[in-house]
């Protein structure tokens, strides 16, 4: 009887072209019918996609899932929605149009997306599927080769998994229509139901699986048809979803080629139509260095095209990790533009604090300029409307946040979930900050970015910003290194890269000559603290380990570059 009811539900969902009664689908169908032209350019797949095509692709992929999933996964309620007791479906696709289709097809079933990464599939991510009782994984075109590996892992873990290839109409030249699709008023899904599972970076300990509810996809977003947003395809899941929602609401988006690099991004900016770009600090630094080393010496008329392209950006956001002051100063000095900093976390779901284009700046020396330039110094701005933010110590301490999109729990870890919320329901982020002139100033990650010494605390991000402001310093990373006797605590490790002696900022000096000067400047920057210090130079060809969102992976950096103190 249950199987028969499920079959009837499947037919109803397909024949009536019905979508759930949620803001997400209301907005998508409305804009699909009012905006016929393409809104998404995907360079990885070489396709231009309209919202109508997206609607048809999502409906088609939903039907593929309905035909592939066992009837036992569906409730006997004639809605065609997957059972709330087992909503999880794995998604292993590239961060491009396939991500759009895969996410929406699963959501249209009332399902919850479990985001997987190929590089971690055999190292624990398969265990997520077993833990959440997921029996299916949707695979993108580039991931279908993992079918045998998924089958092998399923047998190894005694948890069979059915791989389902993702299907789109990208190769179909016909113009699809969204006519006939509608919202089924009876197809309601509780807002607290799971919808999305993402893994944290695990920079300070065990990586955890964060579960977001349906509200994550049904929040209000600001979108304009005049916006043209480029998406860099390197692991930016939370910002990618935020931008995806803006495209679903009428903004234009463009997926760049996989790991495009600074040259490709600059060539796209040069065209002048891009208005929004969000990326890691590391990416913005690469863009700045590429301009300094390759574009600044171009003839003025040719260089002006790149300058105008940068100036066309209305929203230039840095996310993921603190940004050095010289980067803001470079952008301001060179293009007359101000980069904005957004603060978020996997658990928060959205940017909760942000700087503004008219926020306070301080005077610093910008590389490679000799004169002081206006620049942010570690500020992550102020809370955005609707966001609750406080510090554990009043004007300093751990950042605690409450947002409408706050995660509901860690998968399979109720003890840890309870521990990370205070009595008022604020999430303990594990990041430290202090208030300065009404702005929240980032101090670092508690447990990895702050070193306690007898004279106080050394905040690594702030110290790194000071050191990378030295003209001949290219990179600098502060680390906590265990002393020879574990009971004696930690000493300060400094990993630094000097610019090549041929670089103008090096003044022709060698690394050895710079090292003695650097030691003196480091000592000055550390005052009044005088901790034991171990300095290690980064040589040509050596790169630091980074997390998937390009933060320095300090714990692994210590293992790679500093021998155990025995």
UniProtKB/TrEMBL annotation:
Any GO MF annotation of the entry: medium-chain fatty acid-CoA ligase activity
Pfam families in alphabetical order: AMP-binding
Keywords from the UniProt entry: Membrane, Transmembrane, Transmembrane helix
Transmembrane segments annotated in the record for this chain: 97-116
InterPro entries: AMP-binding_CS, AMP-dep_synth/lig_dom, ANL_N_sf
PROSITE patterns given in the database record: AMP_BINDING
Gene Ontology BP annotations: fatty acid metabolic process
Residues covered by the AMP-dependent synthetase/ligase domain: 89-411
Keyword Acyltransferase among UniProt keywords: no
Record keyword Acetylation present: no
Source species, domain of life: Eukaryota
Entry's family note: Belongs to the ATP-dependent AMP-binding enzyme family.
Protein name (database record): AMP-dependent synthetase/ligase domain-containing protein
